[in-house]
Amino acid sequence: MTYCLGIKLKTGLVAIADTRISSGTETTTARKVTIYNEEGHSLFLMTSGLRSVRDKAVTYFNEVIEKEHSTNNFNKLYKAVNAFGEQLRRVASEDRSSLEKAGLYFNLHAIVGGQLKDDDEHKLYLIYPEGNWIEIGEGTPFVIIGNSGYGKPILNRTVNYETSISNALKAGFLSFDSTRVSANDVDFPIDVVIYKKNSFEMIEHRYEKEDMAKISDFWAQELQVALQNIPEEWMNVVLNKVQ
């Protein structure tokens, strides 16, 4: 499984991707985010699904970029998203039948974020296995692909379009950490990507488990304190019935 998160904020973008790859009884790590940085063009691509489908689709997408010598062929981000969607459909036409015969689903999802030279602002897109996409906007400014159930509650409560990049990164990490402690198919290291509006530069950093251990422990302790501090008067109506 996978945990990949993209957040669109007024001031920029935040992305987090885990690196856990599971295959039967074996676990390995592999990079799930790809960065494209050029003058006036900056985007990231994250994927969740079969690794073989991901690698093939990204390879085909890189080939499209290489033929044009750069991402400059795409003046707006949605055009790059369309190009990746086309390559995803190409992989589907080549591999879907054989995968399904083997009992595997063609299930690749992708998140693409960034800003190209003619975009009026930074953009964030979710791409489906069929190659179609939706744009992530202000109403619900984040999207998770992969194991999404455990990490959404804290984001729903703390993140909106006006949230600062630093607070979004905090909430994003806690969302990942909630998923990590609840599922054995999501884990460190994590790759973090930050994009500041109109900067045309992706900033990336990898965190190992030991880098974030203090924050994980701090959050667990704070939750225990918060639980103890929740008012209890409302409970009396039921607790008084306990003999």
What does this entry look like structurally?
The structure is a single chain. The model has no long low-confidence stretch (mean pLDDT 94). This protein has a single domain (3-230), classed as Glutamine Phosphoribosylpyrophosphate, subunit 1, domain 1 (4-Layer Sandwich). The chain has 243 residues and is of the alpha+beta class. The strands form 3 sheets. A 5-stranded antiparallel beta sheet has the order 10-1-2-11-12. The protein has a 5-stranded antiparallel beta sheet with strand order 5-6-7-8-9, covered by helices on one side. It starts with a strand and ends with a helix. It is built from 6 helices and 12 strands. Helix 1 (51-67) packs antiparallel against helix 2 (77-101) and helix 3 packs antiparallel against helix 4. The chain is globular. Strand 7 (109-116) and strand 8 (123-127) form a beta hairpin.
Q: Any guess at the CATH architecture?
A: 4-Layer Sandwich
Integer average pLDDT: 94
Strand order of the largest sheet: 10-1-2-11-12
Q: Please give the count of helices.
A: 6
Q: Give me the count of strands.
A: 12
How many domains? 1
Strand content: 25-35%
Low-confidence stretches: none
- The CATH class, by name, is Alpha Beta
Summarize the structure.
The protein is α+β, with helices and mostly antiparallel strands and 243 residues long. It is built from six helices and twelve strands. The chain has a single domain (3-230), classed as Glutamine Phosphoribosylpyrophosphate, subunit 1, domain 1 (4-Layer Sandwich), CATH 3.60.20.10.
